[in-house]
Amino acid sequence: MKTVLGCIADDFTGATDLAGLLARSGVKVNLRIGIPDAPPTDTAAFEVIALKSRTAPVEEAIAQARAALKWLQAAGAKRFFWKYCSTFDSTATGNIGSVAEALMRDLNTHQTIYCPAFPENGRSIFMGNLFVGETPLAESPMRDHPLTPMRDSNLMRLLAPQTTKPVGLANRLTVAKGADALRAKLSELATQGVAHVIVDAVANDDLYTIASACRDMPLMTGGSAVAMPLPALYAANGTLAADAPRATAPDLSTETILLSGSCSAMTRAQVAAYSGPKHGLDPVDLAENGPKTALAWLATQDLTHAPLIYATAEPDAVRATQAKLGTAAAGEIVEHALSQLAIAARNLGAHRFVVAGGETSGAVTQALGVDRLTIGTEIAPGVPWCFATSAGQTIAITLKSGNFGAETFFADALKALK
Ligand code: ADP
Question: Backbone phi, then psi, for 185, in 5-degree steps?
């Protein structure tokens, strides 16, 4: 199947988020972890490549994105989507705009849009300013993010230093007038040489208008949500064949393991709310003895009851651990332990894996030898079940970034696959 839309995401759970929203259409979506070594085979109409470039230096992020673009072009794609976080996460020397500009050069196109809005998750843009719920981005908890602290809410000001060409705005008043009005505004901005256009969106209807106006741009950029209407739009105008392969879900037995390495506020609430069997990890003990105790506990569990193993801890406890072990070492020790536990669970017969934490998800999928996922049912906005092969077996796996999902996420995940 020729790829209709080739997507490049700057991190891993962001890629699953985008893939999940595209898969709401029922059409098959593939997610590749990293740029595949081999040329495209068995491609789907929608292909998403997950990079790990959010905090990478500009040149490295550009090189990765261009290589991903090449692979997607070889898969047949003519339209592309550059996906970043709905809170526009980037460092002071951020790469969102520089990557977009490099992709535009390769695609020989002179304008793209930026729309990180995700209204279902409370991210909206008004007059070029990004809001988290009712709070401007720079006053939200993103202000204190450890890697990408966001201290400005104005997307034009955030983007301008990341690009060489002019930045402009198509505001909500234009978007509210519909797709034709937005197209006219984009053309007007293009005649003024504006290459990078922030587009306001406060509701799902706005996203539909924006996607309608921009669906044939060689490059669109945004959070995941503005891509959500694209499959239906491509189906309506024949870009996507009516017989494009649909997503199928394998029938898997119910042995399940839940693994959490996220310490985000929402994950902490989710771990507390889970009423099934659970076992906490102590990173200091892991550093001395490895995951012996947890492996022994796991071996006594009935996997049909979906046991949960977690390193999730309150901020004070995390700080104390980091002071003892070092921040990076503590993270690695926990990720390594959860990876070993994932393998052990698979060897004990687990077919379903629920993983909480972005970095944790990267470590666990790598340990399970998963480099390609097809996307299934959505558990929460932006968190789908995925299907993959690990050690020759078909498995279901869901990868949740820290703040996603409701408090009942673990139970929701188990229900969604029934
Ligand atoms: P999130 O998506 O919530 O940011 P991540 O998995 O990306 O979650 O990041 C959490 C990091 O914290 C991981 O590197 C993980 O290994 C580490 N970690 C988890 N639990 C602890 C703990 N109790 N003490 C110190 N570090 C921890």
Answer: -65, -40
